[in-house]
Amino acid sequence: MTDHRDGLDARRIRFRRGDRLILDGMHLTAPGGAVTALLGPNGSGKSTLLRLIAGTLRGEVESVRLHGDPLLTMMRRERAQRVALVEQEWSAAEGMTGRDIVALGLLPHRGWLSFESEATDAAATETALRRAGALAFADRDAATLSGGERQRVNLARALAQRPALLLCDEPTNHLDIRAQLDALTLLRSLAGDGMTVFAALHDLNHAAAFADRIVVVANGHVQAAGSPQEVLTRELIARVWNVDAVVLSRPDSDRPLIVFDEAPVPVLGR
Questions:
Q1: Can you spell out the DSSP letters for 29-44?
Q2: Which residues form a coiled coil (predicted)?
Q3: pLDDT higher than 90, residue 252
């Protein structure tokens, strides 16, 4: 895969749900060939933001560019060739196996008359399943899969799509500890191949350990953006999440390790 370094640039993103302004003129970037973690409290609009960037939700957006190309003015099929969104929940079509769902990721790259062979499609599906750790249950009815298994199948579908930009909404959701680490390691590997990876995460230590860049959102705005060392400070964690934390350095690394205190921090200035 070509290693594009421009990445994602999304400007003036605004979204209102009823009387509540969720996102208020937000501007964010995610560099190519890197993992950017999107962090924020529950209700801060992380899922909404990913869907607006992917174009699956309409809002007030000035521009969303990937490597300089405007995504939101593209035809749906062209955009799907470049962007894949892995959401937290999904609805499996009745009677489909995990393998069938992963094969849907190939559709954006087919013309009206596809000359791809069944063997080529099968190989691409198999590769995506294996890389996402979903091969063992690929031929089961998707309705019988556990939450963690569904999450892996959904990630495999996105890999089959061969995107330049991978958007992930809580990719470790429903996964056990080993599978969480495998998923995060996979995201790092994809970024190493040149992909732009933008993932909403809940676990600050996962973000600190695996992300190259962190964007923190709350109250409709970007609160901080930069490296894990720059962003994940005791002061920011207290201000955004209302918890006290000790920020240490990981052994053999300058990446932060966050240890939380049990006592809440008093809310100031709200």
A1: EE-TTEEEEEE--TTS
A2: none
A3: no
Residue 5, both tokens: 């370094």
Q: Which is it for the CA torsion 121, 34, 80, 179, positive or negative? A: positive
Hey, is 192 helix, strand or coil? helix
**Assigned domain for 256 exists:** no
User: What's the pLDDT at 221?
Assistant: 95
Helix (H, G, I), strand (E, B) or coil at 219: coil
Query: pTM above the 0.70 mark?
Result: yes
Q: What angle do CA 252, 257, 262 make, to 5 degrees?
A: 150
CB 62 within 8 A of CB 98: no
Is residue 163 in a domain? yes
CATH number at residue 112: 3.40.50.300
- In the β-sheet with 60-66, what is the strand arrangement from edge to edge? 20-30, 8-17, 60-66, 69-70
66 in Cβ contact with 196 (< 8 Å): yes
Return d(Cα 85, Cα 267) in angstroms, integer: 35
Task: Let me know if residue 236 belongs to a domain.
Answer: no
Sign of the Cα pseudo-torsion (142, 147, 153, 155, in order):
positive
- Give the contacts of 181 (CB within 8 A, at least 6 positions apart): none
Decide if 146 is inside a domain. yes
The boundaries of the domain holding residue 173 are 8-229
- Total domains in the chain come to 1
pLDDT digits (tens, 9 = 90+) for 24-42: 999 999 999 999 999 999 9
